[in-house]
Amino acid sequence: MIRTLTKSYFYLALLTFILFFSSIEAKNIYFISVPKSGTRIFASILSELTGKEINYWKIGNSPLDKEKIQFQHFDDHLPEYLDCIMNDPDSICFLLKRDLRDVIVSAYYMSFNEPHIIISDVEYYNSLNKEDKISYIMKHSWVINSAHKCARCIKKHASNDRFVVISYEEMVGLTPSFIEKLSRIESNTDLVERVAERTLNSERGTKVGFRNGKTHDYIDEFSPKNMDSFSFLKKLNKQLGYNDDSSPNKKRRKR
Prior knowledge:
It contains 14 helices and five strands. The protein is of the alpha/beta class. The chain has a single domain (26-239), classed as Rossmann fold (3-Layer(aba) Sandwich), CATH 3.40.50. It is globular. 53% of the residues lie in helices and 11% in strands. It has helices at residues 2-26, 39-50, 78-86, 100-110, 115-118, 122-126, 130-140, 142-157, 168-172, 176-182, 189-203, 218-221, 224-229, 234-239, and strands spanning 28-33, 53-56, 68-73, 91-97, 163-167.
């Protein structure tokens, strides 16, 4: 009798083990980000945790390539991309956002080397001073359109268990909520925290040509005129989850 029960427990445990790891292996990972929201860092963390490469998704690519993590910004192909996720029952999609004021600052610094990526009228943009460039980005850069799409996506899909909203502030602060959200793809939270911390340290200061942004960057970079110019984007920033007094949660998870 005891031997029979022992065998039963063994096979039950074995079946549970197989089903658990099979479900993780079958999980198709997507993520969408607002540009300048720590995309590179988050992509590296996902790759480290899963051992999978990042594939920049385009129409015509196979969206169900389980060997890669499917990524794209909130751009014109978003409806097709979301359709792929909604039609994939084994999917999980991370939505990466950031305080729009800091997105604008990051876009401004990126325009030093690659202005054509941020705005279309490069010649006019280059004739402006810093203050006017920042205001110009607010009104004319595609990153603002991307933020609008992110806000609509969060409103529509945030209640869907397969969509996980992560903020830049959570990520760089290694907050408990960030660790918990990544436990959806790796249950060992201590491992998640170690990998995330190692990746953050590695990505900061090691990439030539990349500026290391921080939370509340805009406080040192926005002029009073820029603060006023941002007024028309306050509603959008609030839809993304940021108020005028938003402050990053720097509390680390207790080991």
